[in-house]
Backbone:
DNA sequence: TTGTAAGCGTTATCAG
DNA sequence: CTGATAACGCTTACAA
């Protein structure tokens, strides 16, 4: 069968302890080092992570919980994590919660049972009871994209208030006053913040908020169709609409296409999250761009720190800046050029 | 610390062997069963997979090697695998090879060192030396999307010859005779097959093959720009172009947009792989659709079988059928309506 | 620096 | 059906 350090020790004529020490980077006499290295090559020895893990109580694997593996936001975030976890030799165990809290809870149990060394979660809701359980067991957790209220937890998020604010501000400066918003579920922190950004921008520009311009939708694939319908069926309908996440942005594009409403002409439209194809539309789409790779990288790096016992600044809440892409999907309603 | 079966045994007043048997579904006296269940609840016992793995030599984890986690094809395939692996309690360890053979080789080593129970690979090339190593170690491997020649390995692929054939046939039946193709690297089996489908279709319709209409490109993000340039710079340029994978399709869309060439009007364009946004373009894009979820599901199911020691029909090569979406991105050059 | 040996939490064998 | 006990492959005191 597979050779063990015992075999290596025998062949190298040293004790198994010495081999173990060599493998773990402790000092070993140069001569023995050579012999061990030779024996390892000879036998093609690979050490058994389970045996090691059993002793050290580390699996060198981390769990990553995301709402959907086909979601572009999630995959970009994962991409950002990879380099860091690679560097430290962690395996990434991906779990897809399909946007359901019950799955999230189940997967958390699964990962804890698997004894991963740490977990990164992009939570589907504002519910954090199961996350408390993880923390109580001593396992580090980092939340991404969505903050959970009433929970002390490391979190990497984007500055959603400002992201939305800038988008709405841009719409306003192009002359729009009637601006609809596809807001997300208000039990999702991110959604709440984006709506807050919308409100602030209107306030700062002294535009009265028309509550019927605020419609709510799930943040799921295909969600939001009725929300757009509702907005367009208003007697006094908005001239511009701001969608606050990727899925609802996509739905908007589909909706307008189906309705024969041309973006930038019949309706002005601002979306959230960037994908190459959004810029291939006619006209290209104005969007809020989030630094998705960076979120992943920061989360991974923080988790590694925590797994190494460094709890400085806990709970750390890091907010990353977003930017906006401005295109003709927002019609310019005023004569003066805008910079 | 964490309770072990020893603690459970003590509390339940039975031997540790009995607890282990209970946990593994062997017969245990009803009375003891009750006591054990109670003790487990009481202590909140979770068994240690590393200890189990050390004995049984199983990690209950599988490795999945893909060229890129942000590739829509890959994520859809992974989505298809999840249900199956969930059912059998396997964790999925995702590794991104970034389309480089050297990374693929390294990741294979990583996964073998981690002692996963099986590996699914979407190979980046036709090189299978490292895959032979896996097989020699007794670890089951299933290849997806791309077959590797001169390697006996379970493989789930799409019928690429027919997929391409149908696309080209459709283009021909709409009156085109000058059809360009963005072919992939010919050391990728999938790319070879798709080119083969193109050739066959032209042959079957008695259209002479113009070798300058065949241009090659990498199958990577952003690749293929020069390939399109080359085709359009021909004195006698094609009236239709067929891109043979997702990335080059995307590049095509970008290229035409940049050049101000309108698809379906100035040039006819047929792509590969489906994504919602392709249907939101003006006009929507004609594409070959692959059953990505099904590939994942089939691969997962086959791997589970192999991991359970069932080697029937090895090496199994399964080919899944593709379909095509036909839109106005192909201009109809003949009067008679086509069905 | 090294060898020895006890343990990590299970499973599996064997005798009862 | 159960209990006792020897592995599984490694790390880590401890003593030398």
Residues:
């Amino acid at each position: 069968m597979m050779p063990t350090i015992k075999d290596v020790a025998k062949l190298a004529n040293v004790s198994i302890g010495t081999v173990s020490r060599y493998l773990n980077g402790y000092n070993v006499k140069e001569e023995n080092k050579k012999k061990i290295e030779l024996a390892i090559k000879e036998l093609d020895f690979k050490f058994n992570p389970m045996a090691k893990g059993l002793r050290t109580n580390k699996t060198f694997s981390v769990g990553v919980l995301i709402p959907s593996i086909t979601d572009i936001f999630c995959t970009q975030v994962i991409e950002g994590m990879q380099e860091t976890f690679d560097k430290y030799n962690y395996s990434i165990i991906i779990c897809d919660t399909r946007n359901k809290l019950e799955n999230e809870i189940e997967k958390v149990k699964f990962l804890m049972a698997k004894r991963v060394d740490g977990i990164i979660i992009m939570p589907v809701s504002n519910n954090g009871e199961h996350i408390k359980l993880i923390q109580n067991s001593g396992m580090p957790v980092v939340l991404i994209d969505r903050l959970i209220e009433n929970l002390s937890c490391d979190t990497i998020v984007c500055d959603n208030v400002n992201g939305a604010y800038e988008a709405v501000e841009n719409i306003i400066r192009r002359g729009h006053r009637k601006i609809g918003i596809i807001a997300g579920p208000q039990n999702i922190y991110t959604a709440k913040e984006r709506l807050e950004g919308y409100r602030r921008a209107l306030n700062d520009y002294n535009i009265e908020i028309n509550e019927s311009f605020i419609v709510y939708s799930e943040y799921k694939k295909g969600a939001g169709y009725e929300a757009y319908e509702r907005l367009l069926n208003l007697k006094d309908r908005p001239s511009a609409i701001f969608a606050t996440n990727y899925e609802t942005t996509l739905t908007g594009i589909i909706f307008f296409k189906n309705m024969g409403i041309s973006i930038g002409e019949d309706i002005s439209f601002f979306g959230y999250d960037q994908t190459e194809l959004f810029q291939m539309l006619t006209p290209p789409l104005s969007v809020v761009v989030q630094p998705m790779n960076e979120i992943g990288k920061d989360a991974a790096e923080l988790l590694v720190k925590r797994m190494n016992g460094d709890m400085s600044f806990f709970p750390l809440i890091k907010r990353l800046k977003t930017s906006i892409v401005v295109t003709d999907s927002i019609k310019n309603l005023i004569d003066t050029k805008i910079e």
